[in-house]
Amino acid sequence: MPVRQAIVNYLIDDGGVFRNSLKDIPVSMLTALPPDEKVVGIETILKIENYIVKPFTKKEILDKVADVFDQMEEMKKVSKALLDNKVPKIANEYEHLVNELHRRNRVVGSMEKSLNLGLICDTRSINDVLDKQKEMTRVMKDRIKAIRDKYDV
Predict the structure, then answer these.
(1) For every residue of the chain, which 3-state class applies, written as one string?
(2) pLDDT in tens, 8-20
(3) What is the value of pTM for the model shown?
(4) Domain spans of the chain?
């Protein structure tokens, strides 16, 4: 077995310790191709923090990365306040919703940019995905607002 494959197998077959240690690290994709749910699946696309499509500027990349960290910091503050209110399940739900909402918003932004630049041929399919994602984000925003209002955080 090649050394590279042995290392990969070791990292994968460690009972999830390695993967769990990396799960909170945000991933940004810099690519020439727009996100395509037919190729990699919408679930995979939605796990990526930033999907930055060419053309992009240095400022755009730095702004997007800073935005991820700013949003994570705000989410952690609210989550801590919820934990202080002794509602850990709500804190977990809040964190999950906020993370998913921000990911979806960034993917929608990348898809819209790709559409506007004419990088996507199957616009009807992408518009259907965009409509579904926008509806999902609306539902998430409503639930996030309800949590913040109920617990005054």
Answers:
(1) CCHHHHHHHHHHCCCCHHHHHHCCCCCEEEECCCCCHHHHCHHHHCCCCEEEECCCCHHHHHHHHHHHHHHHHHHHHHHHHHHHCCCHHHHHHHHHHHHHHHHHHHHHHHHHHHHHCCCCCCHHHHHHHHHHHHHHHHHHHHHHHHHHHHHCC
(2) 565 555 555 655 6
(3) 0.71
(4) 26-151
